[in-house]
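User: structure tokens for Nucleoplasmin-3, please.
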Amino acid sequence: SDLLFPGCELTAATTSYTFQVDKEDDSDHILALSMVCLTDGAKDECNVVEVVGRNHENQEIAVPVANLKLSCQPLLSLDNFKLQPPVTFRLAAGSGPVHLAGWHQIMHREDASFEEDDDLSEEELPPIMPAKK
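Assistant: Done. Predicted tokens:
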């Protein structure tokens, strides 16, 4: 099931936000980031937003995903950039305010096994016939 991610706002006072789920929840969670934008009160300065997560060796890594400036790029569409919680969004430069929005997708274990069964049953398509003239 998909839920609207209520979003978060990063400012000079609140420079980071962490999205996490209950550790005892056995569902798979995906956070899809769709948009990052400057909001009212933003100055014409570079605002760099980073995503902070963990790599396969469990080391913290920070990757910039947006560099916004009011006069040239106040909004960036991220086309549902998928992240696996826990993930932290950090305002690495600038004072914001920067708003982030997206979707939170929850896949329950029984849903995942159902989808895997669908992938196994391939349907054979009829051959393509030439068009009639």
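User: Anything notable?

Assistant: Residues 26 and 109 are 7 Å apart (CA to CA).
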